[in-house]
């Protein structure tokens, strides 16, 4: 099976995506085709044997073959006409904007391209932390208390410090800060508002247990191990950045079966049907034996490969079980009947 | 000002979009460029003086110039190279799928095209009637009670007849039915499930007042008149279809100032910032002097032109006040620092 990996794009997490893509080279046993989307959103075919981070930071990739996205896939110019870059499925590995906000899924759906990754609706819901909360509550999964603040509105903050401040629509810990007392509020808000016009505030619960669970649905649910990430207070972007190149297995969290079951139930409820076609990672908090959703990562760093016993099998199975769109029949029933009535 | 109108696409409302596009020819005083997206999602430049519904139903449009969407706009092939189809702004007039589900907005945002229409997040929220409810409740706008049913799950219905059954993600009254007593449930569900894997059920309130209000935000809010649609029990697709070609002014609803203010307040709350860049129509119910949101139409039929005193001014002003995206700076800060640390 040939897998195309699309990465990069106009995102604050562009570099993370590059690192994520390179990490998969060591892991995937499939044939890989690398399709780079640069900051200007131009696509390039990067030779798999020549992929390294310097190729992108130096601009050397601009000598690689430019690609055009159209019906059926990516095309490269030939002396006469064009040829399709053949691959069986594409992994959308663009973290953050473009990849996780619904743009790339929309492009792929519009042009009839088979891909692993969240669809547009799931993207919008996981990309916007407020929508994630509303959705989780609706399907019966617990979330922490929260408040949304907008840049241009002055509103009183209803949550007492310590609290955590997050840009509403960014991942990878970018712009996140912890407010321990009121003196730190202005600075934390300034930082977060640099990245977004809205921020989410949540109580910061010291010492609360956090667990990560990744998975997808093929003909059945395939789950990763449950990881208890080793964290300092929280991982900021610099620390988390290195985390995205991970390819080594982590230690499984020691949790009892009941708790693991609760997490898997919450995962399934959140996943099906909204995230069909994607391999997602859910980050949970556990408070007094109850599971709370922290975040949904619909395109986790290096696809959370290090959490799976057999990552290659998961990717192969998922490729075979991608959701299909209903085809709208091409018809002009109403127009024809009006024309008939008019005697045209 | 030159306005491009994109219409058609892979949508159950394709024909409505054709009718909507043709209706605007009589109304808009701007130069119009017609860009048709056919059921196969291929774009064509339709000569403005030759636009009529038969051109599409007969397939004659296939003789018109094919267009390709790329950075900066739509391009047509010339003997040597390509040329850009120049226009100042595009109106996304694709009703239903592709246009209102976030695909076309994503394409336009990805390729840097200036357009009137909902952005991807607003599209997803208004396209899915459950998300509309969750969003409206969150921002403090009333909605009717509801229940979502899924095709493959057997769940008891908690709402007593009479109730209305709607496919979760379709507009223009397609697949909608009223259940007056329990004997009608199976049929109504079968019809709705033909169009979607999920349906929304709401109590059917006989004789409740319904009002439509359209508008957009430029440097200030521009509102239409409030219309009280003349309806039979409800408009089904066949009846509503004809409604989309409307270009004549309607009669203003006779309502008191307090109620009108309440509707405008609800509209503003729902609109800003989620629908910036779009001209939307909100359909409200009024029950015991309180305003309830029924639906948000982010691309109303023929842009609800018939509700505005000066529709051309509204379109001109809106074109000048479209939201802009934050540009992510192209940088390789982390990759460079890692390379430096490695001594590469």
At a glance:
The structure is a homodimer of 344-residue chains. By secondary structure, chain A is an alpha+beta fold.
Strand line-up across the major sheet of chain A: 6-5-4-3-2-1-7-8
Low-confidence stretches of chain A: none
List how many beta strands of chain A DSSP finds. 17
Radius of gyration of chain A: 22 Å
Q: What is the name of the CATH class of the largest domain in chain A?
A: Alpha Beta
Oligomer: homodimer
**Helical content of chain A, roughly?**
25-40%
The CATH topology of the largest domain in chain A is given as Rossmann fold
Describe this structure in words.
The structure is a homodimer of 344-residue chains. Chain A has 344 residues and is of the alpha+beta class. Chain A folds into 3 domains: 117 residues, 3-Layer(aba) Sandwich (Rossmann fold); 116 residues, 2-Layer Sandwich (D-amino Acid Aminotransferase, Chain A, domain 1), CATH 3.30.470.20; 57 residues, 2-Layer Sandwich (Dna Ligase, domain 1). Chain A has 10 helices and 17 strands. In chain A, helix 4 packs across helix 5. The interface between A and B is large, with 60 and 60 residues.
